[in-house]
Amino acid sequence: MSEVEGSAFAPWPLTALDVPALRAAGRRPVPLRQFVLKVHSRCNLACTYCYIYQGRDRSWRGRPARAATATMRRTAQRIAEHVDRHGLREVRVDLHGGEPLMNGPEAVLEYAAAVRAELPEGRGAHITVQTNGTLLTAATLDRLAAAGIRVGLSLDGGTAALNSRRTDHAGRPSWPAASRAARLLAARPDGYAGLLCTIDLAADPALVYHSLAALRPPSLDLLLPHANWTAPPPGLPHRAPWAARGAREVPYGQWLATVFDLWWDGEPGPRVRLFSEIIALLLGLPSRTESVGLSPSAALVVDTDGAIEQVDSLKTAYEHAPATGLDVFRNTFDQALDHPGVAARQLGIDALGAVCRGCPVVRVCGGGNYTHRYLEGSGFRQPSVYCADLEHLIRHIAHRLDTALTYHNSVTLPDRESPQRGPGSASGEDWGALQGRTSRTRR
Ligand code: SF4
């Protein structure tokens, strides 16, 4: 589909955003720092909610199953060219699928080696492979570790029942193999990037959090299911974007707030990226994720055929929604930065509509994930379909932070040399609790 055809679905930004005028006005693109490279476009699982194989975009059917050696090499050269042109010291490379370990680790190792071989001297790449874990073995982990590749694992929780939506094509559960992978990774913290979990409202948030924390991941990504105003997520009604703010039902906000309280009040656990990012934003720091905040997106995807794509989550919007019409054989990544969809994701508050721009939590929320703003026939300039849920969560975290800081200011901390005891002073226990809270907010 051409950009003009796509504009029937998303006139903003595809035809309404004038990128040449933006550039002429001095708005420069932000260099890319994250490259999501598709190693394999098929998967051995058939998760019921998968946004790649169950989404509106079916372009995966026409792509090669595995990235060819020539595609890997050309992609690596394009990354190196971008790194060199923009003087980047390091980039992040995420090797994805489908399932990137479909045919063993060779393709993953080959892609990583190609990127490292092409990078200019003194420049680095943090390389991670994101897997469903079912094909992960100790021998594979050894080879990935030797190549400096860390592993991220996708799970819906830490029990068989919580992973019932993650089955293979014959309906067999993935949990026995995936839980084996989780145990292998927990024994190798240096190579463990973390867990990625898509929220299921039907699952008890406490059980999800505690069971995942028990797998000892260094970090935990809790993802809102990819959805939009035309195709709302499970548990949210169809409603109009202009009625987004102040909606009474906030099931996702409540689910996440429950997990936040367990994380904040409990024993030190994994870093939960969404919570850390919101806390950072509340403290005035920039975000490092596209889910919240106003920082420009600096990530692109290269598919198995070398096509340069925006982000996979856009596959839930309409057929070919992630397409840029560019590929690594003919185009540079700098050219991709001038695609209206890519430029829109770098505009921060200027990409948002009037509802978001007038919102009191906009600096923290940032309109949520770009994909979740989609409305068919209009595009990506609405508030997030999770608007009320995001505001609920942000206000909840702000309240908890405020309470902790009020507590901090109300106590007289003990002198280091001669600890005080008594009314109005912090006992050793209080001091430890406060330290625990403070250390958990560090990024
Ligand atoms: S900034 Fe977030 S909470 Fe505010 S209106 Fe936009 S989507 Fe809703």
UniProtKB/TrEMBL annotation:
Instruction: Tell me the InterPro entries matching this sequence.
Output: Aldolase_TIM, rSAM, rSAM_sf, rSAM_SPASM_FxsB, Sulphatase_maturase_rSAM
| Every Radical SAM core domain range | 29-265
| Disordered: annotated segments | 412-443
What PROSITE patterns has UniProt attached to this entry? RADICAL_SAM
Q: Which CDD domains match?
A: Radical_SAM (cd01335)
Q: Which keywords belong to this entry?
A: Iron, Iron-sulfur, Metal-binding, S-adenosyl-L-methionine
Question: What NCBIfam families does this protein's entry cite?
Answer: SAM_SPASM_FxsB
* Record protein name field: FxsB family radical SAM/SPASM domain protein
